[in-house]
Amino acid sequence: MIEPLVETVKALGRKRFTVEYPEERESLPDSYRGMLKLDMETCISCSACEKICPNKTITMVEIITDKGLKKMPQIGIERCLFCALCEEVCPPKCLTLGKDTDIYETYDKRTLIKRPEELE
Ligand code: SF4
Ligand code: SF4
Prior knowledge:
With about 120 residues, the chain is α+β, with helices and mostly antiparallel strands. The protein has helices at about 5-15, 50, 85-90; strands spanning about 35-40, 60-65, 70-75, 95, 115. The protein has one domain (about 30-120): Alpha-Beta Plaits (2-Layer Sandwich).
């Protein structure tokens, strides 16, 4: 009967395991892979990223740029495996995995589909 009480008192003296997110954040390892970033200026619309993606996360969509209509990757980030294959095959290295951790903070799943403009 006294055991739960003893455990509770012990727990009070222990370090907290959780943090007050989002004010407090855990430090990330160097190898952490987060939100994809796209440099729209250097994308050559080759679709290599779309073809290599193992989880069909990338869809090429048309967007209007200064140079006219161009196809660029749209990412359904909820399906991303953070495997970095798209980064590896991108010829101009304009699609890269960033360090952004706030990827899934949403009440609306539709916001997880990121248009090319939102990846800049
Ligand atoms: S990191 Fe992998 S899963 Fe995510 S978009 Fe790139 S290829 Fe697809
Ligand atoms: S992001 Fe890279 S791989 Fe994807 S279409 Fe643009 S240039 Fe090609």
